[in-house]
UniProtKB/TrEMBL annotation:
Superkingdom per UniProt: Eukaryota
Cofactor(s) annotated in UniProt: Mn(2+); Mg(2+)
Binding-site list for (S)-malate: N491
InterPro entries for this protein: Aminoacid_DH-like_N_sf, Malic_enzyme_CS, Malic_N_dom, Malic_N_dom_sf, Malic_NAD-bd, Malic_OxRdtase, NAD(P)-bd_dom_sf
Protein name per Swiss-Prot or TrEMBL: Malic enzyme
PROSITE patterns in alphabetical order: MALIC_ENZYMES (PS00331)
Cofactor note (record): Divalent metal cations. Prefers magnesium or manganese.
Record-annotated Malic enzyme NAD-binding domain positions: 302-560
Length: 615
């Protein structure tokens, strides 16, 4: 896309530098935009009200002038400290916590006190803290939600009060106030299953990642849980459980509840992007398919996992010199994640080769608990599995019940694991693949680490380092044969935030298949393996904000090309488009505050957006 990488790299740094060196001035080109992040912020709050609003609060970072103007003298210690000094103190406090769950609780407390400091702390120690605020520690927090509960945040809707859904949602702002909504029904959380109302924390965690990784404005987001009851007996028998104590509602009552929510979102926040998260296997794909033609919506478990995995596959195919249209792939584990990956790969093959989706699907073989998916399995196949079921006649002489037998028959270039069955990619399976493919692409993606289908070190040893590997959790580099190999992580956080940012800024009517493919190509184009065949297949998460810029620009460009973008004034030039994107990305910096009267102030200036702003 770009002819001069070094020129491009310099250009990408211009916008952040501009903001830091000119904190009181608006961006000369894009400072007029509603989501502009340069120059001072309007603020109508004073005194303790300002200190109690996490979006504006700077703690001891308020300047002497701000302390006088906003009536903070006497409410703060006298010494003014920089954000960097505050971050150092916060990190010392964080590090003193006894265990990971205590660190998670500390971060939650910091989040509701000072959002800038919260995000700055994570940004400064990203690799260390990422697993605390997200998987696996967030899973522990979700399991203990009712026991750790201190203060409600987010929006709680329950199936018993379906008539109140619209009214309850309306508390969160006007139509132009919400950009990004994450909703869950809590049925299939982070591999730990049904967590009922505790699922609100996964909605909040995903929104944290959108801000951290892509600069989505944190006060313009909304976390939602749809409380449909729970089938978790421990929760039903727990006196402290805070959700509905009834078995999960299914069928028409459930569908009506979800539809009431979605239609209320469309009416109240027509510009918002809707992100479905951790819905159960019977519902995730079905709900996504129902609403995709109606609005810009996304399911990270279905599409996000598929996109980031496809990006890694494309980088691997580049190294192995195999064309996408010629690739053969076996997926072991045909649940939400596995079929989501299959769909993204199928769609990319179709787009790349001109084949129909039906023809492209023939390059993918899915294996689940009964073995290879076959048409004779009929009603036992899920809606998402049906496109990948094979004709029984083609496998009359093959044992379709074992993964090894399928691999011997198919001779795949790519093997994907989403089975949550540890150690199932055995030495025999890996050597079998390597016997007919010079650079086999092997991705044990099941999460957490203990559920991985194989350890990267074993795969490298068994294939004599011929394998191209990506995993679902972070692994340290592998040393083998005197060399060190970086293990790529298929981390959805390198993908879904950028896609969401592109949809938010373009105000796209829909999130199309071509927009997802554009996102995948933008991510794959940043793979270290493109420059060095021994490099990681995906870029490191520490570079995620720059990754998100490229993805967002690609998504926006495709949305414009398809006539789906509603936002006016989107730049045509690629470099200017990326600058336009950066100017609208929220950053964890203390911007100067400008005192405005409450009578003329916006909801933002009055601190009435986000969790702290419900009145």
């Amino acid at each position: 896309m770009y002819n001069n990488y070094h020129q491009k790299f310099f250009y990408t740094k211009m916008s952040p530098q501009y903001k830091q060196s000119n904190p009181n001035e608006k961006h000369p080109k894009f400072g007029h935009l509603p989501l502009s992040t340069s120059g001072p912020q309007d603020c109508a709050l004073i005194g303790s009200s300002l200190l109690n609003t996490p979006y504006f609060n700077k703690g001891v970072g308020f300047t002497p002038e701000e302390r006088v103007q906003f009536k903070l003298t006497g409410l703060l210690p006298q010494n003014v400290q920089t954000l960097e000094q505050q971050t150092k103190r916060a990190y010392q406090q964080y590090s003193s916590r006894a265990d990971d769950l205590a660190k998670n609780t500390f971060m939650t407390s910091l989040h509701v006190q000072n959002e800038v400091l919260y995000y700055k702390l994570i940004q400064e120690h990203l690799k260390e803290i990422f697993s605390i605020i997200y998987t696996p520690t967030e899973g522990d927090a979700i399991q203990n939600y009712s026991r750790l509960f201190r203060r409600a945040s987010g929006c709680f809707l329950n199936v018993n009060d379906i008539t109140r859904v619209r009214e309850d949602l309306s508390q969160w702002g006007n139509p132009e106030d919400i950009d990004y909504i994450v909703v869950t029904d809590g049925e299939e959380i982070l591999g730990i299953g049904d967590q009922g109302v505790g699922g609100i924390l996964i909605s909040e965690a995903k929104l944290v990642l959108t801000t951290l990784c892509a600069g989505i404005h944190p006060n313009r987001t909304l976390a939602v849980v749809l409380d449909c009851g729970t089938d978790n007996e421990e929760l039903l028998n727990d006196d402290l459980y805070l959700g509905l104590k009834k078995p999960r509602v299914r069928g028409k009552e459930y569908d009506d509840f979800v539809d009431t929510f979605v239609q209320s979102v469309r009416e109240l926040f027509p510009r918002a992007y809707l992100h479905f998260e951790d819905f159960g296997l019977p519902n995730a794909r079905r709900i996504l398919d129902r609403y995709r033609p109606q609005m810009a919506c996304f399911n990270d478990d279905v599409q996000g996992t598929g996109c980031v995995t496809l990006a890694a596959i494309m980088a691997g195919l580049h190294v192995s010199k195999v064309k996408l249209q010629d690739m053969r792939m076996v997926i072991f584990g045909a649940g939400t994640a596995g079929t989501g990956i299959a769909d993204q790969v199928r769609d990319a093959i179709a787009a790349d080769s001109g084949k129909s989706k039906e023809e492209a699907a023939k390059q993918i073989w899915c294996v689940d608990k009964p073995g290879l998916l076959l048409k004779s399995q009929g009603s036992n196949l899920t809606h998402a599995q049906i496109p990948y079921a094979r004709d029984d006649d083609d496998f009359e002489d093959t044992d379709t019940t074992t993964l090894l037998s399928v691999i011997k028959t198919v001779k795949p270039h790519v093997l994907i694991g989403t089975s949550t069955r540890p150690k199932t990619f055995t030495e025999e399976i890996c050597t079998e693949i390597a016997s007919h493919v010079s650079r086999p692409i092997i991705f044990p993606l099941s999460d957490p680490t203990r559920l991985h289908e194989a350890q990267p070190s074993d795969i490298y040893a068994w294939t004599k380092c011929a394998a191209l590997i990506a995993t679902g959790s972070p692994f340290p580099p592998v040393k083998f044969g005197g060399k060190e190999y970086e293990v790529a992580e298929c981390n959805n956080s390198t993908c879904f935030p950028g896609i969401g940012l592109g949809c938010v800024l373009s105000r796209t009517k829909l999130l199309s298949d071509k927009m997802l493919v554009a996102a995948v190509k933008a991510l794959a184009s940043q793979s270290p393996a493109l420059e060095d065949g021994e490099g990681a297949l995906l870029p490191d998460v520490v570079n995620v904000r720059e990754i998100s810029v490229r993805i967002a620009a690609a998504v926006i460009g495709q949305s414009v090309e398809e006539g789906l973008a509603v936002e006016e004034g989107i730049p045509d030039d690629e470099e200017e488009l990326e600058e336009w994107v950066r100017e609208q990305m929220w950053e964890p910096v203390y911007r100067p505050l400008k005192l405005v009267s409450k009578e003329t102030a916006t909801k933002v200036a009055k601190g009435q957006l986000g969790s702290a702003g419900v009145d």
